[in-house]
Amino acid sequence: MTEHNHDHDHDHDHDRTVAPMVDEVTDFEVLEIALRELCIEKGLFTAEEHRLFTEFAEQIGPTPAARLVARAWLDPEFKQLALSEPMAASKEVGVDWLEPTGFGTPSDFTAFSILEDTPTVHNVIVCALCSCYPRPILGNSPEWYRTPNYRRRMVRWPRQVLAEFGLYLPDDVAVRVQDSNQKHRFMVMPMQPPGTEGWSEDELAEIITRDSLIGVALPKPGVTTNVITETRAAIHPSQDN
Length: 241
Fold this sequence. Notes:
By secondary structure, the protein is mostly helical. It has helices at about 5-15, 25-40, 45-60, 65-75, 75-85, 85-90, 135-140, 150-155, 160-165, 200-205, 210-215, and strands spanning about 110-115, 120-125, 175-180, 185-190. The strands form 2 sheets. It has a two-stranded parallel ribbon with strand order 1-4.
């Protein structure tokens, strides 16, 4: 191969090379890295403590919340506790809102409420300002929950947005949208679906998905994942038939 051909091939390969990872770092990631390193330098926490918290945040999920709702369906006294003292009920399923990590890291959420669905009221949660979410009991929020499309439209056109998730509610069911804020977190307690009478707590917990705890889906026998199987494109109400 001549030197000319070698250079040509090298240039060709270079053109096909993906951009370096550093080019894909967002402004938020740069800010997080800078703030994290500054906090470690100032002694607010150590790199080891940051690693432990990161691992904790990545492994939490909606299982405690599903367990809480399943137990409430079966135990009227526990249901009353969940609705009146939700932080105490959370402890019963392993979530201590004052120290959720278990290694001395307190939650900065000072209030938590559970919204009960009824035959005439359906609840759904949103954070119109940013993406506030009850992470200690539901885990990290799904990506769509944090998008402006969901946050802005749910508070204005809740029935249409729910329909885009495949949830069509009767006209006689009122939709109540609860907007979270910096210190107050919410989750939904959906109604126990027909056909699950006599089920155990474990069996019920399996069908209580993250989406039903947010309010964009309903628990159904046989549905044990959070995959949305029926969706349609978002349409502005003025264009909807």
